[in-house]
Write a structure and sequence with these properties.
The chain has four helices and seven strands. It has helices spanning about 25-35, 40-60, 135, 145-155, and strands at about 10, 70-75, 80, 85, 90-105, 105-120, 125-130. The chain has a four-stranded mixed sheet. It has a three-stranded antiparallel sheet with strand order 2-3-4.
Amino acid sequence: MSSSSIPFLSTFPPPPVNQHKSHQLTPLEMGTINADQDDATRLRRICMVLALKQAYIKAIGHDSGFDFARLEFNVPEESAMGDSFPLTGWEFRIWKTRLAVARRDQIVNEEYECVAAFFRGTTGSRFIFYDSSDELNKWVQFINIDQMVKVIPKLTA
């Protein structure tokens, strides 16, 4: 039976993700990201890799000063490396979501790449992709502020 840690969730939004993030990616990651000519696909891949890195860094207890380039995620091969060593025992759950976000005086629908990192203590790493809301709803739920306000008294009891 595997143990799990508290999941750490990271998201990366669509633009403005710009060139200053490229130093946080390895040549292998850049090659995978640039394998497609479609800008939307490349942006989604950048956000996914950065969210994977951020979720792992949060899960191991490091702060935002951690050098992202020390990590390498080969998403097509479903493998992860840290300082050139395999990151064994990790489970990464990956999905995208759309949220309505207030931007100045209007509501804008934005798409986010999301990752939750769990340490399971297994001999390998596992990547789980949620492509449908039915699959995702089995373990994660989005709530609005009104629902959150109703739950707060139960959490503080």
